[in-house]
Structures are given as structure tokens and as C-alpha cells.
Amino acid sequence: MFTRADGAYQFARWGRPIAPVAFGVEDSTMSLLKDAIDAVCRLAKHEMAETDPELGSNFMVFFMRDWQELVDTPNLDKMIPELGPLVERLQKADANQYRLFRFDEDGAIKACFVFLRMDDAMAEVAADTLLLGQVVQSMLLWSEDAFAQTSPLALTGDNVAILKPDVANVIRAAYDPVMPVVASDASHALRMAARVGALVS
């Protein structure tokens, strides 16, 4: 779950409270975003905040119909210097989502930008389900393949989206205070597995 495409092991979790904001949606969607973050933070025993003292908001979710809208957003290129080439890559890949992380000097996550292009497939997903999935994928520096074949969410009999137990246990283990905030040695995975095993047993 934390081994990159190049074979390197890279783990990081948030090192500060999460202060969210959403662009391109109504206030009701912002409320759903806060609910999703609150739920996952309670699971991880991590904090959520109204503002970040350094950045104001450090978890930004952008909703759009076309990737070009990012280029047209005033001052976004100042926060994301690589915005132009990034948009070109997303357009070529016909992607409908992308997450970009920023890290503090110790390597912990200090900010996350979530970009969602609302194509037909994305529009069919209920807003609360969509946001919960994005929050889960933004809580840790997962590998590119962690959820490439399967969603971190499952549907109950009432068609309500919930976090899969195995993914929930990984998040809980990752945020255990005795675990490091950042790790680049694969032996960290063994410690994680032991923590998850203790949660399951």
C-alpha cells in the first residue's frame, strides 16, 4: 500500500490538523466534506481545524467540468507552480481525479490539493460517497496502486458507503502515536502489519 511504482517505500501521514475548503460547489457539499473528514479523523484520532495558521486551508478540493478551469483559476499557479504541465498531463490521460501533496521539512503531509473533474462516471457517484473516498485517499501517502483495482469503500445493504474494515485498520495503525509520521524503510510495513493484526485480533 506504500510501495511506489519505482519500488521505493514511502509512507507519510498528516503532521498537523486538517483545515478543509472546497471550490466549485454549494455550501451543502462543503458540509458533506467536513463530515467525511471528521469521520476519518475520529477513526485515526487525528485533529480537524477551521484554519491552518500557516496556510489558512491545507486541504483544498476543487470541483470542475474541464481541467482547463484550473489554469483559469486566479493565483492557483502561485500555489501550484507546476500547474500548467500538470493540467496537460491530466488532459492527455483523460483523468477525472488527481491528488497533490505538500510536505513539511520533516516529510509529514502539510497540505493536499484534490482535483475532481466531474465527468459522467464521477457524476453518478453520490456526493457523500465521493467525498469519503477522496478523504480516505488523502489521509496517507498511499502508493499509486493501493486502490487502482478496488475502492477503499464498500456499500451496506442500505446502499450506504462505509470504509472497508481492512483499510480502516491500516489508517488506525498508521496514526498510532508510537508509529513514525514518515517512513522510507520497508521494515515500517512489518510494524504496520503487526499493529493491524493487533486491531483485528
Q: Care to describe what's here?
A:
The chain is of the alpha/beta class and 201 residues long. The protein is built from 8 helices and 8 strands; from the N terminus they run ββαβαααββααββαβα. Strand 4 and strand 5 form a beta hairpin. The longest helix is centred in the N-terminal third of the chain and has 18 residues. The relative contact order is 0.19.
Concise overview:
By secondary structure, this protein is of the alpha/beta class.
Keywords summarizing the entry:
201 residues; alpha/beta; four-stranded mixed sheet; two-stranded antiparallel sheet; 39% helix
Average pLDDT rating: 94
**Overall number of domains:** 1
Count of distinct strands: 8
Low-confidence stretches: none
What proportion strand?
Answer: 15-25%
The largest beta-sheet arranges its strands as: 2-3-5-4
Secondary-structure blueprint:
Layout: E1 11-12, E2 20-23, H1 27-44, E3 59-64, H2 68-72, H3 76-79, H4 83-93, E4 97-103, E5 109-117, H5 120-123, H6 127-138, E6 153-155, E7 161-163, H7 165-174, E8 182-183, H8 187-200
Parallel strand pairs: 2-3, 3-5
Antiparallel strand pairs: 1-8, 4-5, 6-7
Helix pairs in contact: 1-6, 7-8
